[in-house]
UniProtKB/TrEMBL annotation:
SUPFAM superfamilies: Dehydroquinate synthase-like. It is an enzyme of class 1 (oxidoreductase). One of its GO terms (molecular function) is glycerol-1-phosphate dehydrogenase [NAD(P)+] activity. It comes from the Bacteria. Pfam families: Fe-ADH_2 (PF13685). Its EC number is 1.1.1.261. CDD domains: G1PDH. This is Glycerol-1-phosphate dehydrogenase [NAD(P)+]. InterPro entries: G1PDH, Glycerol_DH. Keywords: Cytoplasm, Lipid biosynthesis, Lipid metabolism, Metal-binding, NAD, NADP, Oxidoreductase, Phospholipid biosynthesis, Phospholipid metabolism.
Length: 392
């Protein structure tokens, strides 16, 4: 199935889903992964009658894709300017107030649209600027590294604190397959980690729905599950960096992103494992440490939770009494999570980290985050339930 068919099918299914939640209209006009993505992007810009665009990239993604895209635009005499987002004082590219102001200063009346040429961070900066300036943005992923390309949420760091703002999704996405295949291996491994995180996020969502009436949409859940399964099936091709594997990985990440977009909240793709990752990220920020890729963190935190959730459930006495009559259903949810060894094995196969030590996270931080990360979000996860029981 090509990506345009994917959007049409999800839109149609959304209309028939009677889960009771509002389903967002997916306003992405077109998406493409392939060899002539930049030519397709240029034709799209001409079709839209845009006169001038702003390319937002960082030093690396400009070299990886921005130059090539710029050349394609120049051949068509299309006007564009470039904003290379600078790194912060420790050399990281972060979506903070400094980067945002740098980008906003480049946007004036002559700009018709913004092009996010990069990975998740460049997309977060562009998405926010797009919402604030009212100029549409187009996604040009340079690595299959996260599921957030098409989402509404922009996690930003303001005065050292991370906060997610609801902004806008892109109007189109064009991914050059060669650029994706040439991306650093750890970026691809991170994208795979963000997909594996769906084992625990989906389990947490099913649990939250059962225990705390968290809003639930079976369509968004099954789209996310299907994306996860497609990806795991192609783990060997992804590990080898083969075209088919990379294509399936990005398509799965996009499908997971669309499920969130449809549902309007991040439940399908973000559970306790994402809360642990936010906790670690905040700790790194406070200590001025270099950030670790989002997908690398959530891959590792999924391994930790696969272990914790199984142990918690099998130890029985830790389960709140109120849950006893639902233990069969909870057992079913727990059995949907592979074992720690299986999740870690999949991560290792693609060359991704599978232990906190590999991320530079020590035992003290792991233990503290397992006790406190659930406080970062209001969402009812097994991690939250586990902690409530511990404190009783
Ligand atoms: Zn994620
Ligand atoms: Zn629904």
């Amino acid at each position: 199935m090509n990506l345009e068919e994917m959007i049409a099918e999800i839109e149609a299914l959304g209309k028939t889903c009677n889960c009771g939640n509002n389903h967002n209209h997916i306003s992405i006009e077109t998406m493409f992964i392939g060899t002539d993505a930049f030519a397709k992007c240029s034709s799209f810009l001409l079709e839209k009658k845009f006169k001038r665009v702003l390319l937002l990239a960082d030093q690396n993604t400009y070299v990886a894709a921005g130059e090539k895209l710029g050349n394609t635009l120049r051949e068509l005499n299309f006007e564009y300017s470039v904003c290379i987002i600078e790194s912060n004082k420790i050399g990281d590219i972060v979506a903070d107030e400094v980067a945002i102001v740098q980008a906003l200063l480049e946007i004036d009346n002559s700009i018709d649209a913004l092009l996010a040429v990069g990975s998740g961070t460049i997309h977060d900066i562009t998405r926010f600027c797009s919402a604030k300036s009212g100029k549409p943005f187009i996604s040009i992923p340079t690595a299959a590294s996260v599921d957030g390309f098409t989402s509404l949420g922009a996690p930003l760091i303001v005065r050292g604190v991370k906060k997610t703002f609801q902004t806008v999704s892109p109007i189109a996405l064009f991914a050059d397959i060669e650029v994706l295949m040439n991306a650093p291996k750890e970026m691809t491994a991170a994208g795979f980690g963000d997909m594996l995180a769906k084992y625990t996020s989906l389990a947490d969502w099913n649990f939250g729905r059962l225990i705390a009436d968290e809003p639930f949409c079976p369509l968004a859940a099954s789209l996310t599950k299907e994306a996860l399964e497609n990806c795991v099936e192609k783990v060997d091709e992804i590990a080898l960096g083969e075209e088919e594997g990379i294509r399936i990985l990005l398509a799965s990440l996009i499908q997971s992103g669309l499920a969130m977009l449809l549902f309007g909240q991040s439940h399908p793709a973000s559970g306790g494992e994402h809360h642990l990752s936010h906790y670690w990220e905040m700790e790194f920020l406070q200590k001025n440490r270099h950030q670790v890729l989002h997908g690398a963190k959530v891959g590792v935190s999924s391994v930790l939770l696969a272990n914790l959730y199984r142990d918690w459930f099998s130890s029985g006495e830790l389960l709140p009494k109120a849950l006893n009559n639902r233990s069969e259903k909870i057992a079913e949810i727990i059995s949907s999570i592979p074992t720690t060894e299986q999740v870690a094995g999949l991560l290792k196969k693609v060359g991704g980290p599978s232990t906190p030590e590999e991320l530079g996270i020590n035992n003290e931080l792991v233990e503290r985050s397992l006790k406190e990360a659930h406080l970062l979000r209001n969402r009812f996860t097994m991690l939250k339930c586990y902690n409530i029981k511990l404190s009783q």
